[in-house]
Design brief:
about 200 residues; mainly alpha
């Protein structure tokens, strides 16, 4: 069935293998390094162009969570992928270890839609919902410290829609695009995403 995990893997989602851990670590680390410039870009955009482009740029930081979940399809994959990506960035970000808390919360938010489906649906709609949920949580956490509540009501609404759209299209869409491209190389042959009859 479209968007559902293979029957052979149901009931075994809690059993992580060494390969699962290595795959999550590799994806999280690689994307964590790639995202280091995004942290500074986001802060620059926030200072110069306002919250809208910042909301879109932060959608990139959640790609490791959704991508690792899409590939490994195990409970906790989104959180673990986020933590690895955050750990890589600790020495290079102005926030230091605080970034791990932000990434952990983001990973948990990404995980929620998959949890609600009992980790059985991994199609693009679920990936997009995952990204949107994480984006909205991130925006909610920024509301008070960034003073978004002082903006005009229509501007706030536009910001909420921008964040949700960015989370869905950038986080969810890019995570699937990258994972599918990686699967074509054959390195994910042991996973559903790397099988010939790939789920969509």
């Amino acid at each position: 069935m479209i968007g559902q995990a293979p029957a052979g893997r149901r009931g075994k989602l809690a059993g992580w293998s060494t390969r699962d851990l290595l795959v999550v670590a590799a994806i999280g680390a690689a994307l964590g390094v790639a995202l280091i410039p995004v942290t500074y870009l986001g802060l620059t955009l926030m200072a110069t162009l306002g919250p809208f482009l910042y909301a879109l740029s932060t959608s990139l930081s959640r790609v490791p969570s959704v991508m690792t979940m899409y590939v490994v399809r195990r409970p906790g994959a989104a959180v673990l992928g986020a933590l690895v990506a955050g750990l890589v960035q600790v020495p290079f970000t102005p926030t230091g270890w605080v970034i791990l808390v932000a990434f952990a919360l983001s990973g948990a938010a990404c995980e929620l839609p998959f949890l609600l489906t009992r980790y059985r649906r991994f199609g693009l709609p679920t990936l997009m919902i995952s990204g949107a949920v994480a984006a909205l949580l991130g925006l909610a956490l920024q509301y008070v410290p960034f003073g978004y509540g002082n903006l005009a009501l229509l501007v706030q609404l536009a910001l909420i829609l921008t964040a949700a759209a960015g989370g869905a299209l950038i986080t969810g869409g890019l995570a699937k695009l990258l994972a599918d491209a990686l699967a074509k190389t054959g390195v994910l042959s042991g996973y559903a995403v790397g099988q010939k009859r790939q789920e969509v």
